[in-house]
Every structure is written in C-alpha cells, then in structure tokens.
From TrEMBL, chains A, B:
It comes from Sphingobium soli. SMART domains: HTH_GNTR, UTRA. This is GntR family transcriptional regulator. The keyword Transcription regulation applies. Pfam families: GntR, UTRA. PANTHER family: MANNOSYL-D-GLYCERATE TRANSPORT/METABOLISM SYSTEM REPRESSOR MNGR-RELATED (PTHR44846), MANNOSYL-D-GLYCERATE TRANSPORT_METABOLISM SYSTEM REPRESSOR MNGR-RELATED (PTHR44846:SF1). Keywords: DNA-binding, Transcription, Transcription regulation. PROSITE patterns: HTH_GNTR.
Length: 241, 241
DNA sequence: GAGTGGTCTAGACCACTTG
DNA sequence: AAGTGGTCTAGACCACTCC
C-alpha cells in the first residue's frame, strides 16, 4: 500500500499516498474521497492520524473539507495558490484562463544560480524551457523554467499536450512530485532583447521580474522559474501568513 | 482565566489567551513559555488541545517550537512574515532595520474603498496615518494607513513612541488585536505629487504600489494600508503556500 | 436518523536536548 | 536520567448535512 520511507511519520506517508492517488486519478477533481473512517481502516491507523494527514492536504489546497458532507478533491486549477498573476485590467474580477505555449524545451547547462536554486551537483544536467502565458492572443508572461534532468528527464520526450496548460499538475501526474510551496521574489527592471521580443514590447520597457523556487514537502527544490511581464498591466495578489 | 466567547472551540480560546499573555509581556520575546504539560493543567484541558492551540500560534509565527527544549516566543520583528520589503541593493543579504516616522495621524472620513476594506458601517469614522519607512536617512516606503476609529480610537492620543517602530506589535500590546494574515496586491504605477514628494523623487517616477488588508483570526479586517516605493530599488519576497 | 467531519480526552511510547 | 516536544491510539461526544 505504502512504499514511502518508513522513517517518516505515518501521517506524512499517508498524506503523500493520498496525494499520489489523486494525481493518478483514483479520485478526480470535485469528487469525494473516502471518509475518515474508511481511510482509517484502509491504512490501518487511528482516525486522528488520518486527520493529521488530511490537515496538511487541506492547507496545501489539494483537498477541501465540508463538515457533514465529506472531503473533496479540489479542482486542480491552482487559482488560489500558485497561479495568481495578472487578474488583468481594471475590472479586477475576471480570472485568467491560463493558456500557455512552450517555445523551447532542451537539455542545458545550468548557471551557478540555477545550480544553487535546484540544489544540483557539479555534474548534474538540467532542463530548460521557455514558455509564454497568453490570454486572448495577448502575451502576458514570459517564463524561463529550469528543472533537474535527473528528476524530470523524461519530460524532454513527452507529448507537449501532456504539459499543458499547467505544469505543476503534470509534475504530480507523471513524476509524483508535488509542489507544496514556493518562494517568490519580485523586482522591477527593464526588458532585455529576448524578453521584450517575446512580450511583443519595445526593448527597455518596464517589466516585472518574478523569480520562483518551487519546493516539495521534503523541502527539496523542484523547479526554478524566472517570469517577466509588462509592468503597466501587472497585478500580483498573495495571501501572507 | 479565559473570558472569550465560550461558543468558540477551546483550542481557539486558549490560542488567543496565550497570544494575549505574550502581548501583555507575561512571556517575553526569546523566552520559553510554559511547557505543554503545564499549560494543560493551567487551562484544565488535555494536552492534545494545548497542542492544537500552539499549532496555530506556531504557524502564525508567534511561537517557535524546539523539540526537547521548549516553546519560545519569537522576536516580534515580523522579519519572516509581514515585514519583508526592500531587502535593498544587490547584496540581498542585509536585512533592513525598519526605522519609521509617522508624518500625520488624524480622524478622517473614509472613502468607499476604505469603508469596504475595513468593513465599516456607513456612519463609522476612521483614522488615517501617513508614515515613512526609512533606512540610513533614505526614504524607502511611503504608507497610507487606515484603521477603524471604533476599534483603535485611543491611538490618536497615544505617545508616538508607543507606535514605533512597528505597528502590529502595538496593536497587540495596546488593543489585544492580533494580525493573523494579510492580503496583498502589488501593481506598478507612476507616482503622483504626494507620493513623489515623500519619496524624494520626481513626479511621474515608476513606483510599486502595495495594498495590504491585515486580518485577524476571526477574519475581521483590522487595517488597510497602501504603500508606495520606488520601483527601481524594490524587492519583494514572499513564501507562497 | 444515519453518516459525515470537528472537538476533546487520557493516556502510551518515541525522539531530542540538557545536565 | 530527566524533561521536553512529536507521534499515535481508541475511544467519546458534538455540529452539520442529507434523506
């Protein structure tokens, strides 16, 4: 049933197993998962241990609890957590449908910064992707994405449709790697030639730069991403705890 | 011992009581608080209930746990949570000492936006403060801060030294109101005359605008704040969950 | 009323830190 | 060895939802 490191606490093993089942599609978005009592007998632990596991999944936004009704898989659109740029325009209400287009995907030698952020060894290789996020044909964001080739190597040969529109669900589904949290760093700068070209704006335009390190439950970095978007139409919303 | 709403779960009453004790100075920053077993007998509840209360204080960053040593009041500098703008400069390492200067403090009629964000009634009054955050004489941030006059009225007559350098600890100490989380929204715009003047920059400079709604445990908004800083030296770091 | 999640108990045993 | 927080148990009872 569980093949995780037995040195980890049971509630963490169970948390990861439930997350993996959801990623494998055993429980689908919007559906109710097994009840606490069922899970308790499935895993052979007390109900309190199950609750502890679910607590973390709920705070990760993977599962939603409804008192008296059950526990439900959240639609995996990440709208409340790790995708929340560009509510766009003054209306402020409409949420973006995250169309994305991967421009390139290749094995590459990581810079020292990328090596540090992904915690790669001196010999490790990396995967580099350039991706555009668009809405209604308009380019909103240009992203440079770095992954460890050791962890995500097969991504180079996968059908591109398996990587759209969102990458984090793809990491879960195909590699069992769950992004639990991320560190982000925002600055404002002027666009260089590559960024300006992809954003369809003049070089030297004012752009927002977002660096994001995506991290799993074990505190290991999964992805390093640098995104750029035009400053004058940029909105960034976040809940700070 | 506890005078909170008895309809609330015990662990929430205990959480708030412990937080209030810390705010009153019964346990000081860096000190160990009572052990779980002691708290359990103080409050007359099982140790699991104490743990539940402490869980929330720990995730709020009020208390830090150390396995085998005890539980400690975190230094209340908010450096890891709600004050983390402007790590400033390319060094990226030095953290800012948050000098602050309150320029004005008065009763004012809130706009509809402020009324909405503070959830004020149509007749309620508000307090408006303008504050500068500086480092080494240089102005980094210009803040416009709004509070409910009903909740924070006495702040108008307090010695200004009681409100520096940080406001959130002052809210805790003098009003027992704890900021549990905040919603922030960042945009980039050009400075108007007031902002440019306070930031000692030409009007029309590119500035970052941060709107922040600070919220307590009961999900009630405590403060609405709009901050501006020069875009070219702005760094914003956040942990996203 | 049956079934669900939410709170709370009163322990047990383990892992870590300090003397 | 003593004391601390961390994990886990096997229940009890409550609050909410749905039939």
């Amino acid at each position: 049933m569980i093949k995780a490191d037995p040195r980890l606490p049971r509630y963490q093993q169970i948390r990861d197993d439930i997350a993996a089942r959801i990623a494998r599609g055993e429980w689908k978005a919007g559906e109710a998962i097994a009840t606490e009592a069922e899970l308790s007998s499935i895993y052979g632990v007390a109900i309190g241990t199950i609750r502890r596991a679910i607590d973390e999944l709920a705070s990760d936004g993977v599962i939603e609890r409804a008192h008296g009704r059950g526990m439900f898989v959240r639609r995996a659109d990440f709208s409340t957590s790790l995708f929340r740029f560009f509510r766009l325009g003054s209306s402020g209400e409409r949420s973006i449908s995250p169309d994305s287009r991967i421009l390139s995907r290749s094995l590459a030698t990581p810079s020292d910064i990328v090596r540090d952020r992904l915690r790669l060894g001196p010999e490790d290789n990396a995967i580099r992707m350039i991706r555009l996020r668009t809405d209604g044909g308009k380019v909103l964001l240009r992203e440079e994405i770095w992954l460890s080739a050791t962890l995500f190597g097969p991504i180079l040969d996968m059908d591109i449709a398996m990587l759209t529109p969102l990458l984090y669900p793809a990491y879960e589904r195909h590699f069992g790697r769950i992004v639990a949290r991320a560190k982000e760093r925002l600055t404002v700068e002027t666009a260089d030639a590559n960024v300006a070209c992809d954003l369809e704006a003049p070089a030297g335009s004012s752009v927002v730069r977002i660096e994001r390190q995506a991290i799993d439950h074990a505190d290991h970095p999964l992805e390093w991403r640098t995104s750029h978007g035009l400053a004058d139409q940029f909105v960034y919303e976040v809940d700070v705890h």
